[in-house]
């Protein structure tokens, strides 16, 4: 089982009248996982990885990973974006490293470029390997349509029909009031999907703008903005996990803003946040500083390197042999 969000959980399309009713009806990561995971007799039953097999390499010291569905140590990978990815490519990734992967994200609106049949193949394949499937922050583009209410409704309906589990809500290029952001979160949940807000300190995040231009814009927010929005989304919106955008923190900056990360984790439980860390030096730092249970988003090409680091069997000079757990 995994943190995969099952499509079989039904959810009322009419918004509940109270926050209590909303929470009771909101799709749950764990329920989705348990209801749609293959049975033990399924042809997709996964063999043990050799590091967990006492008859193989189980004798080697390592950090045991929590079983799926995971609430900590969650790894979401980027799917097709910097390179194309078809069924055979993804199948290779999941058959070899599926134990270590919790989620698959289609960056931006990349999924809209696929023929429908091929996109469904990828989504179904991920589900077969107990991996939830997330959109990228394309909702940001949907909000700019001439009739955003209708466009958002159609977008959510189409994503649900395709089998997506999670809808990312990003506003890196938009100025959106927090109350409106909460309305979007509720709308996603009311559609029977999981809302995953992506929050950052850098306006213009999510694009290809270089550090100098971002700095010249003077659009870096105070870390308290991220903390305050996260609290609202968790407490009022029932959000289960928030993505922290890397731009302005560890990406497109002259020096890393580690103070921002510390400020977030002082106020928000670590299991409620996931840090974008699609750079080996960055995810090496996160694991070194916060341990093997930190939730991270990386590129699919980095899953082996990150998993070696989490398991404590490999690393860089500052983490090799130094990442441990006690459980």
Automatic annotation (TrEMBL):
Similarity comment: family membership: Belongs to the phosphosulfolactate synthase family.
Domain of life: Eukaryota
Region annotation (Disordered) ranges: 24-48
Signal sequence residues: none
PANTHER family: PROTEIN HEAT-STRESS-ASSOCIATED 32, PTHR48413
Biased composition (Low complexity): 26-42
Protein name (database record): Sulfonate biosynthesis enzyme
């Amino acid at each position: 089982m995994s943190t995969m969000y099952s499509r079989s959980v039904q959810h009322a399309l009419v918004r509940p009248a109270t926050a209590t009713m909303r929470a009771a009806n909101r799709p749950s990561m764990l329920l989705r996982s348990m209801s749609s995971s293959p049975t033990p007799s399924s042809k997709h039953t996964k063999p043990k990885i050799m590091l967990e097999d006492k008859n193989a390499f189980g004798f080697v010291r390592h950090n045991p990973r929590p079983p799926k569905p995971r609430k900590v140590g969650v790894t979401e990978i980027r799917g097709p974006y910097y390179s194309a990815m078809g069924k055979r490519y993804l199948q290779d990734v999941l058959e070899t490293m599926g134990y270590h992967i919790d989620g698959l994200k289609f960056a931006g609106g990349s999924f809209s470029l696929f023929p429908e049949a091929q996109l469904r193949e990828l989504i179904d394949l991920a589900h077969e390997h107990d991996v939830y499937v997330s959109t990228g922050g394309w909702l940001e583009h949907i909000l700019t349509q001439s009739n955003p209410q209708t466009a958002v409704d159609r977008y959510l309906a189409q994503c649900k029909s395709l089998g997506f589990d999670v809808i990312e809500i990003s506003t890196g290029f938009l100025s959106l009031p927090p109350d409106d952001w909460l309305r979007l979160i509720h709308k996603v949940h009311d559609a029977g999907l999981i809302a995953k807000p992506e929050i950052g300190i850098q306006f213009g995040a999510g694009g290809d703008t270089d550090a100098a231009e971002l700095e010249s814009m003077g659009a870096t927010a105070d870390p308290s903005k991220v903390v305050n929005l996260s609290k609202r989304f968790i407490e009022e919106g029932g959000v289960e996990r928030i993505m922290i955008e890397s731009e302005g923190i560890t990406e497109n900056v002259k020096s890393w803003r580690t103070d921002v990360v510390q400020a977030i984790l002082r106020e928000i439980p670590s299991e409620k946040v996931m840090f974008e860390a699609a750079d080996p030096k960055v995810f090496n730092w996160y694991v070194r500083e916060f341990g093997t249970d930190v939730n991270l988003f990386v590129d699919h090409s980095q899953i082996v390197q990150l998993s070696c680091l989490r398991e404590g069997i490999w690393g860089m000079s500052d983490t090799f042999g130094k990442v441990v757990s006690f459980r």
